[in-house]
Each structure stands twice: as C-alpha cells, then as structure tokens.
Write a structure and sequence with these properties.
387 residues; alpha/beta; Aspartate Aminotransferase, domain 2; Aspartate Aminotransferase, domain 1; 2 domains; three-stranded antiparallel beta sheet; 12 strands; 40% helix; globular; binds pyridoxal-5'-phosphate
Length: 387
C-alpha cells in the first residue's frame, strides 16, 4: 500500500511561474496591469477568441455575463444537474429560474434532446457544461438556440484546451467562461476568463468587472495615462491581479503538454479497468473532439458491491488515495430539495450518476507509479467488497 497520500489533484507550478510572481511583487505593481494584459492576449490567441475578459473567477464570469445579458426575474435558463454549484447559483441569484435538463449516459454531458423539451416562451439561455473536459454536442445546441432565439453560455470551467470538431472551446460563436482554480487544467491561483465574439458584450462585462469604470486603473497611473476616470454604470470588483496572471502566463504554454499527460493517464486507467464489471468507465462522444481530460470519472456499480460510493471513497482514502466528487447532482443538494424539488424520475441519468460517480487522481505530475497505486487500490477495494 502507498505510504504517502496521493491527492486527487495538485497544480503543476514551476520556477517560471514562481519567478514571474516574484517579478510582480518586486515591480511595485501587483494588481491588474501589464501581466493581466499579456495573459489576456495569450489566452485569446490560444483559444482563438476575438474578445476575452480576465476575471477573479469563473463564478464572477457567470455573474457578469448574466447581468450583461439583462437576465431578470421570471426568465428561465436551461442547464445540467451535473455541474458545480456556481453554474446554478448564479442563475438563481440573477433572479432567473434554473431548469435542469438530464444528461447523456456515457459522456455525462447535457442531452440536447432534453434541452429541446424544456424550452418555454420564458427560456432565455442555455448553459451547457463541457463535463470533465469533453465537449458537448454544440451544433445541435446552436440549431435549437437559433430556432428559439436563445443565448448559449458555455460553462467551460473544465474545457481549457477542449476542441469541438477541430475548433477550440472559446472560439465558437457564443460566450465561454473558463476557470483557473488550482484544480483546473491551468491555474492562476483563482481566476476566470469570459471569451466571446460579441464585442459589446465583452465591453459590458469589462465595465461591470471593475466599478463600471471607463479606464483600467493601471492605465490611469501609468505615465501615459491621466488620473481622471468616469463611472459608466455601477459595477463590481472582479478584476484579475497581475500576481494571478503571472502564474497563468507560464501555465498556458504548458497546457498542451498537461493535456497530453492527462490523456496518457486516462488511457492507463481505461486499460487497467476495462475488465472490472463493477466500474462503468467514462464514455466518449461520437463526434470529433479533443478531450481535455480535466477529470477521470468512472461510475461505481454499487449494486455489485456491499458498500456505497461515499464508503468507497473513504476506503480509497484509507489506502492513501485521494478522490473527488464531481458531482453530486444539483437537485440532490439540500437547498434545491427544499426550494426547487425535482424528482429523480425527471432526471434519471443524472440521479444515477450522482450516487455512483467519483473522480480518481488525475494531474500532469502524476507518475506511472502513482497511476499503478490508484489501480491497485481500486482493484483491491473491489475484490474486498464485491458481492
Ligand atoms: C470550477 C467550476 C466553476 C467555478 O469556477 P471558479 O473559477 O472556481 O469560480 C463553475 N463551473 C464548473 C463546472 C466548475 O468546475
């Protein structure tokens, strides 16, 4: 058994990231400034997006996007129950109603046919989540959106580097919101980015992110700028700092290598688990896409075991293997049960996955020995608790 605990994820930070942060600290300018601009430009170029707005988080991106789109009381937004809390929380806090559409069995991405069934005259937008880094089927979603005049907002928190039919997520004709939380494929400590081809939306999000102020503070204080500013609208304080962007500047060129290593690890898992009937392995989409392998999420067939998923995770931990839960379905959380109850019969695939899913360790610095340790622990556990 492993003697040192293996976390489910840990960021890959090197000397370049560290030195760039130190450079910020020594430069006298630590908040939004030239490094944020460099990161924004590099990110835009990488994903192929005309406009990008760097922010303090993806949650901030969701918040500002919904406000910029003038989402209001009574509006409905269709999204997936297999997501992080913030996707749905931001819809509710905007005053709108989240409408959960079930997921596909294999990819755990939102089922486009179910989205179509949920559309009403109040529907304003759809928020698909590219689950685990595998692209949703965007063409049929765009078709539905065009037919019904809906906006597509991609929750691309898992999808930095994901491609759909040869195009990067972030370059499609929509709004994509990325996260740079330390567990994500690249990190800035905390951080997010809204990418869009809509210039006026990008401008509005950009104003809302910093007090509704017409010019960036660092430009005002730079020698070329003037200290004057104007408030165009009431805004928030969701700007990214140079200290954060300093990390991102050096993470981005490493991203493709990170994804390649993630893919290798996922393939090792797939191979090792292929003959274990107690596990249902992650499914692949049938259309051309590049999976960014943010997560490796098998389902535990609890019917075949004498323990449930939470107990399975505890047993993994007892073997010094960390795991994550992405996700307990939204409608299974207390607030949603109490305030917006949805029956499991309405969301059968999400309800099924919610009780069985777990995320095994997956991060670029994992060694083949680490992967072998995870495989051995999972196999041992299944042999021990097989019915
Ligand atoms: C991480 C995550 C978010 C939130 O990202 P933050 O940058 O932490 O705000 C939103 N949606 C999904 C699907 C996520 O995984």
């Amino acid at each position: 058994m492993r003697t040192v605990f293996l976390p489910f994820s840990t960021p890959a930070l090197g000397d370049e990231e560290i030195n760039e942060v130190v450079d910020s600290l020594r430069s006298g300018w630590i908040t939004t400034g030239p490094k944020v601009k460099r990161f924004e430009d590099a990110f835009k170029a990488y994903v192929g997006s005309p406009f990008a707005v760097p922010l303090s988080s993806a949650t901030a991106g969701l918040h500002l996007t919904l406000q910029a789109l003038k989402i209001k009381d009574g509006d409905e937004i269709i999204t997936t129950p297999m997501t992080f809390a913030s996707t749905v929380s931001m819809i509710i806090l905007a005053g709108a109603t989240p409408v959960l559409a079930d997921i596909e069995q294999g990819t755990l991405n939102i089922d486009v046919a179910k989205v179509a069934e949920k559309i009403t005259p109040r529907t304003k937008a759809v928020i698909p989540v590219h689950f685990a880094g595998q692209s949703c089927d965007m063409d049929p979603l765009f078709d539905i959106a065009r037919q019904h005049g809906l906006t597509i907002i991609e929750d691309a928190a898992h999808a930095v580097g994901t491609e759909y039919k040869g195009r990067k997520i972030g370059s499609l004709d929509s709004i994509s919101i990325f996260s740079f939380h330390p567990n994500k494929n690249i990190t800035t400590g905390e951080g997010g980015m809204v990418c869009t081809s809509d210039e006026s939306l990008a401008e509005e999000v950009s104003l809302l992110k910093f007090h509704g102020m017409s010019r960036e503070a660092w430009k005002r204080f730079a020698s070329s700028g003037t200290p004057n500013y104007d408030i165009m609208m009431p805004g928030y304080k969701y700007n990214m700092m140079d200290i954060q962007a300093a990390i991102g500047i050096h993470q981005l060129p490493r991203l493709d290598g990170f994804i390649e290593r993630r893919r290798e690890i996922a393939e090792q898992y797939n191979l090792a688990f292929a003959d274990i009937p107690e596990l249902a392995l992650p499914g692949y989409a049938q259309y051309p896409q590049r999976h960014a392998w943010h997560l490796y999420t098998p389902l535990i067939r609890i019917e075949k075991l004498s323990i449930d998923r939470d107990h399975f995770m505890a047993e993994l931990k007892a073997r010094n293997i960390g795991s994550g839960l992405h996700y307990k379905a939204i409608h299974h959380h207390t607030w949603y049960r109490d305030n917006m109850p949805v029956s499991d019969a309405e969301l059968p695939n999400a309800s099924y996955a919610s009780e069985r899913i777990l995320s095994l360790p997956l991060f670029p610095a994992m060694t083949d020995t680490d992967v072998g340790d995870v495989v051995a622990a999972v196999a041992d556990l299944i042999t021990t608790f097989r019915r």
